[in-house]
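step: validate -> pass
step: tokenize input -> pass
step: predict -> running
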Amino acid sequence: MNRKKAIEILQKQKQKLDNPNFLKDENWVFQTASYIKDFFGESSTEYFFISKFEFTAYYSKPDSKQDAIGRLNAKTPKAKKYLENCIETISNKGLYKHPKKNLVSDKSNFELIGIVITISIFVFWIGYWVKSVELFSSKNKTENSTSFLSNTVSQKITNPKEKSM
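step: predict -> pass
step: emit ->
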């Protein structure tokens, strides 16, 4: 989602508050909270505010019903101001980007240390094995060249005719 779409969604939520036929209830709060969570993240102050917001007003017998309606109507400007602030914040800062996880981000330190030690031992073992194979092959080459030299020298000693040629 981009900034423009997020601002458009919040403008629609604000227009719902301006509509006198729209029932201002918890459904509006839930829907707005869902949007705010996506736009700002779950740990943001914006989400904290809207998750605690209520479109309810309680009254007891000493209070009149008109007082309760007045308190309920006083919440609408507060919600509109909140949405205006959210729109301004998105305009200035942009949207929340969820952190991307990689292969090691969900591993504990203990697991990471174990993995590093295991890989180190494996690399050391491969190096040791390669070195021993290299020494073995160079030893065989040396033995083969030594035997070839000794064979040609012994043939020259036993066959003196080749020596004069």
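step: describe -> The CA atoms of residues 84 and 140 lie 83 Å apart.
step: cleanup -> pass
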